[in-house]
Automatic annotation (TrEMBL):
This is Arylamine N-acetyltransferase 1. InterPro entries: Arylamine_N-AcTrfase, Arylamine_NAT_domain_sf, Papain-like_cys_pep_sf. It comes from Mycena albidolilacea. Belongs to the arylamine N-acetyltransferase family. The lineage of its organism: Eukaryota, Fungi, Dikarya, Basidiomycota, Agaricomycotina. One of its GO terms (molecular function) is acetyltransferase activity. Gene3D superfamilies: 3.30.2140.20.
Length: 351
């Protein structure tokens, strides 16, 4: 009996590649293209614009979308995030998505099928990246546990490796970042950029120092609005002269994790009482042709207003119009109205 590889080597078959490319609205003829940065960039951005980061599978059992509308309960109702074939089915055939432990491994399998080499590495996420004050130079205790997965990609003759991530959600970079200290890439609009630094895990100097530490890689996002500012406080849309801040996003070591590691980290991320998405409902993706604007629907119990009605907030941020938020609306946290919304706005195909 053939032994399952210790490290992931999953590669989609030709018919699966064709279906995946069609799902992200790219011509299936790209499957015959030679591996290149241009191909990688095109497929990567298309995935961001068509496949959402999606936690619905945790909170709503498959059968609950049918029949009478029922309240959506935030829970860890999933004890094995669909990987490989199951994740492919959910992403490609059901036009849904997943969080990082489904989206990134499935995207990695697509890239391998297209001739790329992919290493899967684990990351710690900076929990306060979206709210870091632009004048605050102290990180404090804001780094989480290892709950994220990132891809490092190259190919024969590439001459360089690239960091990709289709599972970060809000603020994720849709441009391959060269794995090189100080490498910086512009976003899809003039207001944001990303950089990567080779450094030890940043931490508050007042913390107890670790005994052993080796340098890893930290990604940072530049936003043209100081974090914590309101977009309305600027009379005009921000441009490259608008004050900005670089905020940490995540930190990883360049060490491939095994298939069993992926299962362990995934289990902690969605089944443990402290799991990041146990109490958070999120579906989010980039909008094509908008310069990287993002459409998101999100809910947590603390968002319930004084009327006591549980409604998810829907809004658009970023893109050519600046950080936002804008186009705000609300959807009741029940399976009926939420199913209708996800079908209309995100193209979900419920069975």
């Amino acid at each position: 009996m053939a032994r399952e590889p210790t490290f992931a080597t999953d590669a989609l078959k030709p018919d699966q590649i064709a279906a995946y490319l069609a799902r992200i609205e790219l011509p299936t003829s790209l499957a015959a293209s030679a591996s290149s940065l241009e191909l990688l960039s095109e497929v990567y951005q298309a995935h961001h614009e068509n496949v959402p980061k999606d936690t619905t599978i945790m909170h709503v059992p498959k059968g609950a979308w049918k029949g009478a509308s029922e309240p959506i309960v935030l829970q860890s109702g999933l004890y094995s995030m669909p990987l490989r074939t199951a994740a492919f089915e959910r992403i490609v055939n059901h036009h849904a998505g997943g969080y990082c432990w489904a989206n990134n491994p499935t995207f990695a399998a697509l890239l391998r099928g297209l001739g790329f080499r992919v290493s899967e590495v684990a990351a710690k996420v900076f929990k306060n990246w979206a709210n870091l004050d632009s004048t605050d130079t102290v990180v404090k205790d804001k780094w989480g546990t290892i709950t994220h997965i990132v891809l490092v990609v190259d190919w024969t003759g590439s001459g360089e490796r690239y960091v990709l991530d289709v599972g970060f959600g809000g603020g994720g970079c849709p441009i391959p970042i060269p794995l090189r200290d100080g490498a910086t890439v512009a976003g899809l609009n003039p207001f944001e950029a990303w950089t990567i630094r080779h450094e030890p895990l940043p931490h508050d100097p007042a913390d107890t120092p670790p005994i052993d530490i080796i340098p890893g890689w930290t990604t940072y996002r530049r936003t043209a609005l100081p974090a914590g500012s309101n977009f309305e406080s600027f009379p005009n849309a921000p441009d490259t002269d608008t004050p900005s801040t670089w905020a940490h996003q995540y930190h990883f070591l360049l060490a491939s994790i095994t298939v069993r590691d992926i299962g362990l980290y995934d289990y902690y991320s969605q089944a443990h009482p402290l799991a990041a998405f146990t109490g958070f409902f999120l579906v989010t993706r980039l909008l094509p042709g908008t310069g990287g604007a993002r459409r998101s629907v999100m809910f947590a119990e603390h968002m319930v207003k004084s009327d006591g009605v549980r409604r998810a907030r829907v809004h658009t941020t970023g893109g050519n119009a600046g950080e936002g938020p804008r186009d705000i609306e609300y959807v009741e946290m029940e399976t009926g109205p939420m199913r209708e919304f996800l079908e209309r706005e995100f193209g979900f195909a419920f069975e």
